[in-house]
## 1
Amino acid sequence: MPRTSPARRNTLNSPRKRRVDVARRDDLLRQVQEIFLSEGFTTITIGELTERLHCSKATLYSVAATKEQLVVLATKQFFGESAERIEADVATRTDPQAKILTYLSGVANAMRRNSTTFYEDMVSFAPTAEIYARNTARAAERVRELIDDGIREGRFRATDGLFASQLVALAIEGVQSGVLLERTGLSAADAFNELATLLLHGLLHKPR
């Protein structure tokens, strides 16, 4: 029986190995994300993470070479996965008003996962603060797109979409930082429901 060369064996085995490695890596990163969202990341060490994840430091360093890189990856994963879930929900709606309500509710649900400690750590660490700012800007832009869609469909009156999007951006930041919640006593979900109501009452056509 002909023998398979080592190179051939590696070629045959590598796809399966890569799939297992990627699955393990994603699972570890998701667990790290949950810990960071719940407790923040400044005070947690790599050693503590490995104990809680029941893995070696070498395994965790295969996900990211440093703790700082791990923090960045986990933060990106959080925002990326949240955006995917929100957009999937928005895609099930056809009415422009329902799309905006669904989008803002989705943002509120995602923000419920952020502890105060995580937020403070995130805005204090330059790489994650940049990720946060970029995603906040994208959220504002997305609401502007939904408003523009409603205007084109005749559901909303022609208004300044840029102003509306900036208003949403400020509201998102205010809720995320806790400033609006502290001043109003609302939960994140209630605050975003109020924002949606405020926007849409100002956008809907009024009967002549």
## 2
Amino acid sequence: MKQCTHTDALPDPEPEALTETCPECLAEDTHPVQLRLCLTCGHVGCCDSSPGRHAARHHRESGHPVARTFEPGEDWRWCFVDHVLV
């Protein structure tokens, strides 16, 4: 089973969310399906089921490896580099 190699380098405590929703979706006038919080910088982006896939784009542009769900009642993290739940 593949392990994430990036969680040890994450800031503690995790960063505050920079926004309440995906700013790229707002700028593009699209609707995010679900939101993800970058655990390196606090960027909020939409998931891959959203039209813009802005959380994944943020990872590709910034190199920040791990995001967590930003949805109420959910508690999981995703490593974009290792492609695993952490």
## 3
Amino acid sequence: MVEVIRSRLLDGVPHGFLGRRGGVSEGMCWGLNVGHGSGDDPALIAENRRRAVEAVAPGARLATVYQVHSSDAVIVGEPWGDDERPRADALVTDRPGVALGILTADCTPVLLADREAGVVGAAHAGWKGAFGGVLASTVEAMETLGAQRGRIVAAVGPTIGRKSYEVDADFFQRFLAADDDNDLFFTDGRAGHYRFDLEGYVLARLAAAGVKRIEALGLDTYSDEDRFYSYRRATHRGESNYGRQISIIAVPA
């Protein structure tokens, strides 16, 4: 059975953060792998995507983007084909029957909704996207469809945890140069390195974008191999590939 992790803040809105449980892929990508770039069998990926949508928003049509760690958000009217996906890292819609999907494997998935306006959003917030403003772009795109940022609620899904995310001094200095307060998201690691709290940084960027009600699930993709795919874990092991999990949200019918 597909495991669907939900947020209390998004009760009543079809949504879910999915991991690797309940899929048909085998080998290194075993489970609910939905990533076309993983080298997995396309037929298995298609079945995993079908199962994911049916577990969250039965009957909806899935829309995803070609994720490039940007700050760009797109408005979805009708889902496009896989070969027509725009290069972006967030999607928003007000169309019932459309399921927005974001793929991750350590980066942070964020699902957002303004129930009153009937507008939802999904963002892929790795460090580059979060740093570059993808969350503010998502909120702004939702506003163009009638959402109000004061009404938007957001849930932050499974992402690499601070204890698992070691970065170098250049990385730390990049964030410090942007804002001295970013020091709050780093703790000392081994010599010349730091541990980065990506989830905490994403929460701060959402708050800075005017989102007042936010829930963080506090789930570490790196350390929980039975539930989640992790790019960094695969890299540390020298594995040739890795799966991607999906987070989905749709407008309530």
